[in-house]
Amino acid sequence: MSESPDYDKLARQYGLAPIPESVQRLTQIVSRQDADLEQIARVIAKDPALTKRLLRVADVEVEEGESPADTVQSALMRRGMGCALLLAMGTPLSMALVKTFQTMLGIKLEAVSPTSVDPLDSEHLLGTIGFGGKAVGRLYLRLSLASGKLVASRILGVDPKDITDTNEVTDAVGELLNIITGNFKSNLCDAGLDCRIETPQVARSLQFYTDPIPGGGLEHMAFQAPPITLFVDVTVNPWNDE
Amino acid sequence: MASKILSVDDSRTIRMIVTRAFKSYDATICEAGNGEEGLTVAAREMPDVIILDVTMPVMDGVTMLTKLKENPLLKSIPVIMLTAESGRENVLHIAKLGVRDYLVKPFKEEQLIEKVSRVIQLVKKAT
């Protein structure tokens, strides 16, 4: 989709990066209430990463002799269109997360299967942020206290042992969450999925699991750059009529 | 004479990053945690440039920018937006209010220095 000439000019002047077309296309399609399942399936089936995530979220395995498009379609039929919306939202979210850590901390995160990494089993940092608009949902970011301290030390450019104020850790993690969700929101709004974002909240927590919001889907994601592991959950109820 | 830079951001982390970025330059950094404080500090300090966040409590960056441009004493202070919001509507709206430049978070310190040096003359501190 081409931007208005004024925006193109400003984007060049300010050096703003455009949203990838495939992500924008999927978001645009699934944000419509009359979205066509076959059309969504075709867009997802062309992208191996999206296909893999959809099959994981839908818990569907590829049957022998079945085409990827058929498998994608059956996964969408089994789990509903909300599943596609989760994928559409998860892609810009993952991109924003990886880019933020790379740019601000010099840490190259890699997406990993949430079941392949050691789960959190003690008090940890939990960052949450809610969003409303065409879609209603909540995003959860979990990381260990040690990871939180390391993240804060990298962003502030100080030695981890020099961080003695826990507010420095929560403020740093909160600001990262703010940057990630700000980018995420911009991508969604540009693709026609207007939404509002709440102020991020970061606190110590013993809550290890995320419940999906009523009527919504849930996707678990994990990102790693040893020794840091981040757990990200997104729950969303599509097509809010507010 | 040292340049004066005003950083308006509700995140202490971002204000610390801005301060660190200009550590090796002959620059004084003033800070404010929201738009209302930002207007007060701007009127008191008359900075050479303002680095302004958008989403803040009490008074957001767009409101502060609007009030700044309505004030005959402050309207000529150049403003660089430093925000995570790069959506089309936001950028167009803010550009119309009259900003000198726009830097999207996440950012590298070098990018911030480069944008500021286009607006004011930054001088390295003597070692």
Describe the overall structure:
The complex is a heterodimer of chains A (242) and B (127). Chain A has a single domain (5-237), classed as CheC-like (Chemotaxis protein chec). Chain A contains eight helices and seven strands. Chain A has helices spanning 5-14, 21-30, 37-45, 48-58, 68-79, 81-105, 145-156, 166-190; strands at 110-112, 124-133, 136-144, 195-197, 201-205, 217-225, 228-237. Chain B has one domain (3-119): Response regulator (Rossmann fold), CATH 3.40.50. In chain B, strand 4 (79-83), helix 4 (88-97) and strand 5 (101-104) form a beta-alpha-beta unit. The mean pLDDT of chain B is 93. The A-B interface holds A 3-4, 6-7, 10-11, 14, 16-17, 99-100, 102-104, 152, 155-157, 167-168, 171-172, 174-175, 178-183, 185-187, 189-190, 199 and B 11-14, 16-17, 20, 55, 57, 83-92, 95, 101-108.
Question: Any descriptors?
Answer:
heterodimer, A: 242 residues, alpha+beta, Chemotaxis protein chec, seven-stranded antiparallel sheet, 8 helices, B: 127 residues, alpha/beta, Rossmann fold, five-stranded parallel sheet, 5 helices, 5 strands, 20% strand
Q: Which runs of chain B of at least 5 residues are low in confidence (pLDDT < 50)?
A: none
- Note poorly predicted spans of chain A: none
Helical element count of chain B?
5
Structural class by secondary-structure content of chain B: alpha/beta
Basic shape of chain B = globular
Number of helices of chain A: 8
And the CATH topology of chain A?
Chemotaxis protein chec
**What's the CATH C level of chain A?**
Alpha Beta
Sheet with most strands of chain B: 5 strands, parallel
What is the string of SSEs of chain A from the N terminus onward?
HHHHHHEEEHHEEEE
What's the multimeric state? heterodimer
What number of domains of chain A?
Answer: 1
